[in-house]
Amino acid sequence: MTSTTPTHPEIRESVAALCRDFPGEYWREKDRNDAYPTEFVTALTEAGFLACLIPEEYGGSGLGLSEAAAIMEEIHKSGCSGGACHAQMYIMGALLRHGDEEKKRRYLPEIASGALRLQAFGVTEPTSGTDTTRIRTTARRDGNEWVINGQKVWTSRAEHSDLMLLLARTTSREEAAKPHQGMSIFLVDMQKAKGNGLTIQKLEAMVNHATTEIFFDDLRIPADALIGEEGRGFYYILDGMNAERCLTAS
User: Fold this and answer.
1) Which of 99, 116, 214, 223 could pair with 95 as two cysteines, CB 3.0-4.6 Å apart?
2) Could you tell me if residue 103 is inside a domain?
């Protein structure tokens, strides 16, 4: 017989205790004012919950997906909203699994501490639908830089993120050996990019942290913004989808 006993009771108790400081009125006020729950996200960060999947050597807790799911379940059981910040848990997985050691040591401790927020995931586009191989955003190499052009849509938390994981075509779909090849992922410094080729436009939605459209117009980013091998970005994002699905559903 399958047990229905909740897993990781100590973690759940800690999360529940934190959430008690953010009752329903806190969330109603955020909704009324269309405001981001900064205080809640900060509290989760300082408690180490959002860094649970980051290994200890990079400043995280070194826990697994089961523990991360328990954290998210308890947040929602308590009446709080994890949608404003759950991406901080899983987006960094692409960097952790496929980034070089220098990038991991540069970014992961800052993400773990909350000094940098990596909550924006630039994949979906207006014309690609569910077929990610049809994205049109491109990244063209120009010396020591990449030049980004295109558009993303339904990119949540972009207004509250320091970094974005971006999927773009470095080889056209027609020129690639297979449709799912020729895409690459980049870590974009959004604070530097805003007003320099990156524009964020808010979309009205039933979430207090908003979702957005993002436009890239000759945005230049450093050559080392590339994560992993050029052309393997589709594989890299699929590699992280299981964590995203589990935590989003928790």
Assistant:
1) 99
2) yes
Residue 242 has pLDDT above 90, yes or no: no
**Contact indicator for 105, 149 with CB cutoff of 8 Å:** no
pTM of the model: 0.93
Q: What is the largest CA-CA distance in the chain?
A: 61
> What is the domain range of residue 174?
118-239
112 three-state secondary structure: helix
Contact by Cβ (8 Å): 131, 164: no
Active site residue 244: yes
Number of helices and strands (H, E) in the chain?
9, 8
- The closest alpha carbon to 84, from 39, 36, 44, 46, belongs to 36
Q: How many domains does the chain have?
A: 2
Beta-strand runs (E) in the chain: 118-122, 138-142, 145-156, 163-169, 183-189, 198-203, 211-222, 226-227
At 194 the three-state DSSP class reads strand
